[in-house]
Amino acid sequence: MRDKIVYLVTVVLAIAYIALGHQWAARGEMGYRGEREDFIKARVVEIVNRTDRGTIIEGMGYQDGVSIQFMAKVLGGPLKGETVLALQATDPMAPIPVKEVEEGDKILLFRQENMPEDLGWIAGDYVRFDSLVALGVVFAVFLLIFGRVNGINTLVSLGFTCASVFLVFIPSILSGKNIYLSACATCVFIILMTLLIVTGANEKGLAAALGCFGGSALVGILTLIMSAVMGLTGLVSEESAFLYYLNPDNPIDLKGIIFGAIMVGAIGAIMDVAVAIAASLKEVQAQAPDIRFVQLTRSGFTIGRDVVGTMANTLVLAYIGSSLSIVLLLVAYNSSLLYLLNKEMIVVEILQSLVGVFGILFAIPFTSVVSSFLYTRGRAADPPTAAGQSLSSGEYR
Predict the structure, then answer these.
(1) CB-based contact 107:42 (threshold 8 Å)
(2) Which of 10, 24, 25, 226 could be bridged to 171 by S-S, CB 3.0 to 4.6 A?
């Protein structure tokens, strides 16, 4: 009964945090939003006409792309069910040609004001998110089959995690709030919410939470120190420059963006390690109720040595994989290895990996010590034993 109450209270508080946090984060949002198009989803039902466009220059003919007129049935919005005439115009200068529409394709359409009324819709891009939704549904089904109750808890915590990032953290950055405080608040919320929902309010959850906080705190401190030591500006790409000029009067703190990205990116791996250590030591203590603090701590260190290698690889490879295209371009177009290794874009990627691994390395012993203390508290200290003598489970009671 107590666990159910804790679960319900956690869910209610999480909903309240996201709702109130979104209102706070969206308050005072930047006025500049750029020009937005209203897109509709439609399915191609008929290809009306296909024309090869060409240009003649000094008697020479040049290919100028392809124009395809097609009929499409609107799948959503006020025009749902209607059939509209649309146009797809391909760009011959594109390095990889866009796939020409075919019957049955789902595509996004938007209005083109300077087009004739009977041809006012232009093909934007193909609908791809539906495939991700289908894959997500399959993922949820398998998670529920194998995880059962834990699978449900995982989906709930994952939903709250995504909501806190996209409804609170990101809007708070765009509205000019303090990125450092927003990042820390997001990390605290994700850690507490996830552990209360997945593990419950118990010793195991408390130990894992303290281990997560310790590892995350080290990540934040190291990020701030190294950012100052290396003189980072936060201008790591063209996207960073675009962010900076969203509001020239009150520009976004680009160094804060780096801090937030590293913090949010690292807590997943740190939380995974902390929960693994706390759960493993709880199982060890359950199988050997008389185990002492020192023994249990040593077991945590032993388990941690096996975990840290794979988790460090996971974190490093995740960062490399997320920016592989950029890394390839930099390596291909820079002949100087010295310049490449000192470029801020590369330095930030390496920094993310290193401080994340430091957080894992600290979380393992810290979680082991905290878990051992919580699981064995109230017991007498280990009595002196002869060198090499092992303690049996019933020797000291």
Answers:
(1) yes
(2) 25
Report d(CA 217, CA 195) in Å as an integer: 17
Report the alpha-carbon distance of residue 158 to residue 204 in Å, rounded.
Answer: 20
Angle at 190 between CA 165 and CA 154, to 5 degrees: 100
The Cα 279–Cα 208 span in angstroms is: 8
Residue 381 pLDDT > 80, yes or no? no
* Integer Cα distance of 307 and 315 in angstroms: 12
Overall average pLDDT of the 311-328 stretch: 77
Burial category of 140 from C-beta neighbours within 10 Å (exposed 0-12, middle 13-18, buried 19 and up): middle
Cα–Cα distance measured from residue 196 to residue 212, given in angstroms and rounded to the nearest whole number: 13
Domain boundaries, the chain: 39-127, 140-376
Q: Is the dihedral of CA 239, 186, 228, 211 positive or negative?
A: negative
Strands 106-111 and 39-57, sheet pairing: antiparallel
Looking only at the bridges linking them, the beta strands covering 121-126 and 83-89 are parallel
| Per-residue model confidence (pLDDT) at position 30 | 55
Phi, psi of 56 (to 5 degrees): -105, 120
Q: What is the reported pLDDT for 392?
A: 37
CATH of the domain spanning 39-127: 2.40.50
Within the chain, residue ranges assigned H as helices are 2-26, 129-147, 149-164, 170-174, 179-198, 203-230, 238-244, 254-287, 293-322, 324-333, 337-342, 344-376
- Asked whether 244 and 163 are in contact (CB, 8 A), the reply is no
* Residue 158 in tokens: 């994952």
Orientation of helix 179-198 relative to helix 149-164, angle to 10°: 170
Q: Alpha carbon 282 to chain centroid distance?
A: 29
**CA 92 to CA 32: how far, in whole Å?**
33
Dihedral-angle region of residue 89 (phi above 0 means left; psi in -120 to 50 means alpha; beta otherwise):
beta
Q: Around Cβ 241, how many Cβ atoms within 10 Å?
A: 11
| DSSP string of 36-82, one letter each residue | ---EEEEEEEEEEEEEEEEEEETTEEEEEEEEEEEEEEE-SSTTTT-
Q: Could you tell me the two tokens for 250?
A: 């009150």
Higher pLDDT, 60 or 73: 73
